TrEMBL record:
SUPFAM superfamilies: CoA-transferase family III (CaiB/BaiF). Keywords: Transferase. Signal peptide: none annotated. The keyword Transferase applies. Gene3D superfamilies: Crotonobetainyl-coa:carnitine coa-transferase, domain 1, formyl-coa transferase, domain 3. The keyword Transmembrane does not apply. It comes from Mycolicibacterium sediminis. GO terms for molecular function: CoA-transferase activity. Pfam families: CoA_transf_3. This is CoA transferase. PANTHER family: SUCCINATE--HYDROXYMETHYLGLUTARATE COA-TRANSFERASE. InterPro entries: CoA-transferase_III_domain, CoA-Trfase_fam_III, CoA-Trfase_III_dom3_sf, CoA-Trfase_III_dom_1_sf.
Length: 348
């Protein structure tokens, strides 16, 4: 029995953020019923592996929520559910009656989570992942100083908002009260800028980019070129520096404040010494010393190095759930066929 066994969650999800949130809950034992429009949710058209990566362990029911019959059937599901999560434009959420105000008549304890771009009252402006990263300052502070703004190679805003929505959903269920939960991509990304935003709001420090993704406070903490490949080195305190300096044959700069004030000198010395060995070589030398360092890997290399993270769900190999609960091993089931829940209900 998973920790969320007995919890039923309805999902009216599109593409990534909403489906990712509910998939994590399904991995932990919740019963997740994916409510899809006639013809199926749009991500089914992206590709089978894409859909499987966000919708394993769920069931599917096909409802036309714009019709009287579809709304009636949704109401029946709501009476027997703990929560509903939806990610659509605010106007569509309200039009389809997917708010607590509209659904509480069926179940006063239902938790309704709206996952939107700018909040339920924030309007319908497009809010795709990359757009939100641009709008919240994330792209502007990413990349080399002399290069263009840069986006990461995956959907960081969507995934982060999915995580936050799952947290908000569970928090309201634990409270024992029904109600509306409002989570937006914009707010989540601004929240994750925590110390960057605080530095500006309180000290007027405008974020600036450093070469090789260097940290704004810690030195040295960035990517470094080596004899072969790049090494991520993250020296956060003086103890790490002493151990690294001894292994690398460096002297001086014993205090964090000194390393920060003389950033360019420190980085020049570290760059020269790291060029004497490969990234893998440095990783192997620094690991026994407890120093945070890793050779930059490609995704295929990372997956090959962590076979325990890969699971099988139906016909697909996927990355498994990230929350490990003692005594519970998730059963990874295939993503649902369209409307399979209706067929199962009629046969039972």
């Amino acid at each position: 029995m998973g920790p969320l066994a007995g919890i039923r969650i309805l999902e009216v999800g599109v593409m990534l953020a909403g489906p990712y949130a509910t998939m994590m809950l399904a991995d932990l034992g919740a019963e997740v019923i994916k409510v899809e429009p006639p013809g199926g949710e749009i991500s089914r058209q992206v590709g089978a592996s894409y859909f499987a990566s966000l919708n394993r362990n769920k069931r599917s029911v096909c409802l036309d929520l714009a019709s009287d019959d579809g709304r009636r059937r949704l109401g029946e599901l709501v009476t027997e559910s703990h929560a509903l999560l939806v990610n659509m434009k605010p106007s569509v959420i309200r039009k389809l009656g997917l708010t607590y105000e509209a659904l509480s008549e069926f179940n006063p304890k239902i938790v309704c989570v709206a996952l939107t771009g700018y909040g339920l009252d924030g309007g319908d402006d497009p809010a795709f992942d990359y757009v939100v990263q641009a709008a919240t300052g994330v792209a502007a502070m990413t990349g080399d100083p002399d290069g263009p703004p840069t986006l990461p190679g995956y959907s960081s805003a969507d995934n982060s908002t999915g995580l936050t929505a799952a947290l908000g959903l569970l928090a309201q269920i634990v409270s024992g009260r029904g109600g509306q939960v409002d989570v937006s991509l914009r707010d989540v990304m601004l929240s994750q800028l925590n110390y960057r935003a605080s530095a500006y709001l309180n000290d007027g420090v405008v974020p600036r980019r450093h070469p090789h993704g260097a940290h704004s406070y810690y030195v040295p903490a960035q990517l470094f070129p080596t004899k072969d490949g790049y090494l991520a080195l993250f020296i956060t305190h003086d103890g790490f520096w002493r151990s690294f300096a001894q292994e690398a044959g460096l002297g001086g700069f014993g205090l964090m404040a000194e390393r920060s004030a003389r950033r360019d000198e420190v980085l020049a010395l570290v760059t020269v010494v790291l060029a004497t060995d490969t990234a893998v070589g440095w990783q192997e030398r620094l690991a026994p010393l407890g120093i945070p360092a890793a050779a930059v890997r490609s995704l295929p290399e990372a997956l090959e190095a962590t076979p325990d993270a890969v699971v099988t769900a139906g016909d697909f190999r996927l990355v498994g759930g990230s929350v490990k609960v003692a005594g519970y091993e998730p059963e990874y089931r295939a993503a649902p066929e369209l409307d399979e829940y209706s067929a199962q209900s009629q046969s039972s």
